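User: Before I run my own analysis I want an independent prediction to cross-check against. Here's the chain; please return only the C-alpha cells and, at the end, one sentence I can use as a sanity check.
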Amino acid sequence: MTEIRVAGADDAVEIAQILSDWAEETVWMPRLHTREEDLGFCRRLIETQTVFVVPGGFLAMEGHEVNALYLAPEARGKGHGKRLLDKAKEGQETLSLWTFQANTGARRFYLREGFREVLLTDGSGNDEKLPDVQMAWERG
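Assistant: C-alpha cells:
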C-alpha cells in the first residue's frame, strides 16, 4: 500500500504541477494564476498547513478545514483520495471544506465519505466567482 506522508519543501514542485494541471484540464475552471504562482502557493501551503502526500496526490488542511485535495489523473480511482481524507479525519471530531458546485465528482466523493452539504453560495465570496458548496463531516 502506498505510504501517506507529510509533505516537505521538496514536494512543492509535484503538488503545484498536480494543482496546475487540474486547473488547465477542468473546462469550467477559470485560470487565474500562472504555474509559477501555483508553485509559490504550494510552497506556502507546505510551510503553513499540514499537507499529506501520496504519489500523484495531496491534501492540505489547517485545523478542522480541508483546504485542498487534488489527485493527478493517473492517481484517481485507486483509493488515494479516500486514504488522504481518512488521514485528515484522524483525531478530528469534525471537518469542513469547500468545493465548487460544478465539481460533481468531488461532491459525490465527499458525500460517499460521510460529508453533508451545509451551504450553497453564488460564488461571490471566492476568487473564481464560481458557485460553491460548503461541506461538513462529523465523527459518528
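Sanity check: The first strand starts at residue 5 and ends at 6.
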